[in-house]
Amino acid sequence: MKNIKKDLTSLNDFIEQNVGPEGTIEREEFETEYDTFKLGVLIQQARERKGLTQQQLAELAGTNKSYISKLEHNLKDIRFSTLQRIINEGLGGKMEIRLKF
Asked: What's the predicted TM-score (pTM) here?
Protein backbone atom coordinates (compact mmCIF):
# COMPACT_ATOMS: atom_id res chain seq x y z
CA MET A 1 0.00 0.00 0.00
CA LYS A 2 1.33 3.45 -0.93
CA ASN A 3 2.00 5.96 1.77
CA ILE A 4 0.46 9.20 0.45
CA LYS A 5 1.65 12.40 2.05
CA LYS A 6 -1.20 14.86 2.32
CA ASP A 7 1.05 17.89 2.79
CA LEU A 8 2.58 17.62 -0.70
CA THR A 9 1.48 19.97 -3.44
CA SER A 10 1.95 19.84 -7.19
CA LEU A 11 4.37 22.22 -8.89
CA ASN A 12 1.50 23.93 -10.67
CA ASP A 13 -0.38 24.43 -7.39
CA PHE A 14 2.79 25.74 -5.75
CA ILE A 15 3.35 28.25 -8.56
CA GLU A 16 -0.30 29.31 -8.47
CA GLN A 17 -0.17 29.87 -4.71
CA ASN A 18 3.14 31.75 -4.76
CA VAL A 19 3.08 33.56 -8.10
CA GLY A 20 -0.56 33.72 -9.13
CA PRO A 21 -3.02 31.95 -11.38
CA GLU A 22 -2.54 31.55 -15.12
CA GLY A 23 -3.52 34.65 -17.05
CA THR A 24 -2.32 37.15 -14.45
CA ILE A 25 0.49 39.57 -15.23
CA GLU A 26 2.63 38.10 -12.45
CA ARG A 27 2.23 34.58 -13.80
CA GLU A 28 3.00 35.64 -17.37
CA GLU A 29 6.19 37.38 -16.22
CA PHE A 30 7.17 34.30 -14.22
CA GLU A 31 6.56 31.99 -17.20
CA THR A 32 8.62 34.21 -19.50
CA GLU A 33 11.52 34.39 -17.05
CA TYR A 34 11.35 30.64 -16.46
CA ASP A 35 11.54 29.95 -20.21
CA THR A 36 14.63 32.18 -20.44
CA PHE A 37 16.16 30.36 -17.48
CA LYS A 38 15.48 26.96 -19.09
CA LEU A 39 17.12 28.06 -22.34
CA GLY A 40 20.25 29.12 -20.48
CA VAL A 41 20.40 25.80 -18.63
CA LEU A 42 19.93 23.83 -21.86
CA ILE A 43 22.78 25.71 -23.52
CA GLN A 44 25.05 25.24 -20.52
CA GLN A 45 24.30 21.51 -20.34
CA ALA A 46 24.91 21.05 -24.07
CA ARG A 47 28.18 23.00 -23.85
CA GLU A 48 29.36 20.87 -20.94
CA ARG A 49 28.39 17.62 -22.72
CA LYS A 50 30.51 18.77 -25.67
CA GLY A 51 33.39 19.45 -23.29
CA LEU A 52 33.57 23.11 -24.27
CA THR A 53 34.42 26.09 -22.13
CA GLN A 54 32.36 29.25 -22.45
CA GLN A 55 35.29 30.82 -24.28
CA GLN A 56 35.49 27.96 -26.79
CA LEU A 57 31.75 28.06 -27.45
CA ALA A 58 31.89 31.82 -27.90
CA GLU A 59 34.70 31.54 -30.45
CA LEU A 60 32.87 28.84 -32.41
CA ALA A 61 29.65 30.86 -32.41
CA GLY A 62 31.27 34.21 -33.22
CA THR A 63 30.43 35.93 -29.96
CA ASN A 64 32.27 36.52 -26.68
CA LYS A 65 32.61 34.64 -23.40
CA SER A 66 30.72 37.22 -21.35
CA TYR A 67 27.71 36.90 -23.67
CA ILE A 68 27.66 33.11 -23.20
CA SER A 69 28.03 33.54 -19.44
CA LYS A 70 25.18 36.05 -19.27
CA LEU A 71 23.00 33.80 -21.38
CA GLU A 72 23.70 30.77 -19.19
CA HIS A 73 22.95 32.77 -16.05
CA ASN A 74 19.68 34.26 -17.29
CA LEU A 75 21.04 37.78 -17.44
CA LYS A 76 20.76 38.45 -21.15
CA ASP A 77 18.07 38.38 -23.80
CA ILE A 78 19.21 36.63 -26.92
CA ARG A 79 18.66 37.38 -30.58
CA PHE A 80 17.29 34.51 -32.61
CA SER A 81 20.16 34.68 -35.11
CA THR A 82 22.70 34.49 -32.27
CA LEU A 83 20.88 31.54 -30.73
CA GLN A 84 21.02 29.77 -34.09
CA ARG A 85 24.78 30.37 -34.37
CA ILE A 86 25.39 29.12 -30.82
CA ILE A 87 23.43 25.94 -31.45
CA ASN A 88 24.44 25.26 -35.06
CA GLU A 89 28.03 26.46 -35.24
CA GLY A 90 29.04 26.43 -31.59
CA LEU A 91 27.40 23.22 -30.42
CA GLY A 92 27.04 21.44 -33.76
CA GLY A 93 23.35 20.94 -33.13
CA LYS A 94 20.09 21.70 -34.80
CA MET A 95 17.39 23.85 -33.29
CA GLU A 96 13.80 22.63 -33.24
CA ILE A 97 11.00 25.05 -32.48
CA ARG A 98 7.60 24.18 -31.09
CA LEU A 99 4.74 26.51 -30.37
CA LYS A 100 2.24 25.63 -27.69
CA PHE A 101 -1.10 27.33 -27.20
From this structure: 0.75
